[in-house]
Amino acid sequence: MKPSLTAKLLRNTAPWRNAPGWRIAFSGGLDSTVLLHLLSSLAKSERLPPLSAIHVHHGLQAAADAWPNHCQSICDNLGIPLRVMRVQVQPGASLERAARNARYQAFSEVIGAGQVLLTGQHRDDQAETLLFRLLRGAGVRGLAAMPAQRPLAAGYLVRPLLDVTRGELEAYAHEHQLTWIEDPSNADPRFSRNYLRHHVFPTLTERWPQAVTSLARTAEHLSEAQGLLDELAQMDLLAADQPAPFPWLHLPSLALAPLRELSDARQRNALRHWLAPLTRLPDSDHWASWHALRDAKGDAQPLWRLADGDLHRSGDRLWWLPSTWSEFSDASLSWPDPQNPLELPGNGRLKLTGKAPAGPLVIRYRKGGEIVEVPGRGRRDLKRLLNESGLPSFVRGRLPLLYQGEQLLGVPSLAGLWNTVPGDWQLHWMPQTCDQGLS
User: Which SUPFAM superfamilies does the UniProt entry name for this protein (predicted)?
Assistant: First the structure.
């Protein structure tokens, strides 16, 4: 006997029954209306987490101005609290993608720790997603289509209806006499998904009636394959995740040598896994830049520019620098009270321990030709000291230098790489960390 919609929903939400709250993404369309009604009905007989709904108003068409009131009316009838969020959709090449990004950004802002956002995507959506991505040349991760669950902000995104067809949702809606919004833009064939839905899938299903089910099943197989690739990546990254020589430099990094021992395909798989939370990943045509970075001479210090930052190589180590890393000012700063730490715009914090030298003190950045006094070694060229230390080049321009007038008094101790201060004080630099916006 075929399980009911209620039985499927209960089974697919079982792992999340102890969450502090369930938030329903409620557009007012067929899918989310059925999901909301199902959950409202279940809450009368089952012990569920507190339910609430979120409606995102994109402001892209005049008809949408009436939708918040419709959604409010539905939620009032079901006794479910509703929050309406208005967003600005950024212009771009793909209006669909821009609207989706704005929508999920709004969801991320309201999902609390451990809470679950439930969305109404179904099996037909999954099949459309697979075919759409296949036509764009996606890899295994993209062809796995929409995951049934994934992290979202401090909580989770769960799609409990992925094994339900659009036809089942329509039958439930008619049986319970539900009313829903028909978005006029869903009929516009200029949007790729609409074209697939209205022109491609009818032809496919006329010839292959099980096309939607088969494509959705293929997405499940590819999702399993991606899981195995992720496990392999974690194994390969374990060898490369060696302690960095500069533990005070809080940037993601990997040792290059263990990666070099892998085949090209495993290198790409490991790097995709490592880079996924850091940046949008490049398409296959851009991986030649990885080979150029990997194979460059040791002193070349190459970099690979990606969508949200740069992958640098320094010696035999890879370093990830987010785009925000370059957002700092190298202007001079006065330090009127060295007894208190000095905030360096976009560059962390500087503090001085011990008895401060006489002022006025100024912080400047490297221009070249600096000479510093090193106890036991005399006056040394700063560039040579930095070369000896192996400090990555992308850090050197951010190194704060302490001046008294035109005299260079000292350089941060850099976690003991060298002791640069001949007196009874020490300069400590705490670079900006990922928690301060570098990730």
Answer: Adenine nucleotide alpha hydrolases-like, MesJ substrate recognition domain-like, PheT/TilS domain
